[in-house]
Amino acid sequence: MSFGAASSRGGFPRFAAGDPCPCGAGRYDGCCGPILAGEPAPTAERLMRSRYTAFVVGDAEHLRRTWHPRTRPADVDPDPATVWIGLEVLVTEDGGPADLEGAVEFCAHWSEAGARGGLHERSRFARRGGRWVYVDGEIL
């Protein structure tokens, strides 16, 4: 699956500086854009939101870079056939700027070949080398 809504290139949408961020938390240039460009996420929730946005725009490098190497699969390439159409953050536990671990429960809504659905997950994050990384998730 992959996470989407703007002009497409290579099957994935692209976002400009003033566009609303796919994660729903602000403008792309002040929200997920800088994190996808390499800026560290200040919280586990911000990392989770940036990873959702990476699925939307097909940024496999960001997914690779922000996935704990111990749990990262060999293939993290997003699927352009799945269009991600919205994100709801339901619960955030720890994961603040001073924490070492955190969890975020969310529902990511998708559309693919005329079908719609949602991915409801509780994701775990850890701070590694001063940066947040995704460890694993439990599908709910």
Automatic annotation (TrEMBL):
Q: Which InterPro entries match?
A: NTF2-like_dom_sf, YchJ-like, YchJ-like_M
Q: Which HAMAP family match?
A: UPF0225
- Species the sequence originates in: Microbacterium hatanonis
- Residue ranges occupied by any YchJ-like middle NTF2-like domain in the UniProt entry: 43-137
UniProt-recorded name of the protein: UPF0225 protein FVP77_04630
**UniProt lineage:** Bacteria, Bacillati, Actinomycetota, Actinomycetes, Micrococcales
Q: Pfam families per the record? A: YchJ_M-like
Q: Which family does it belong to?
A: Belongs to the UPF0225 family.
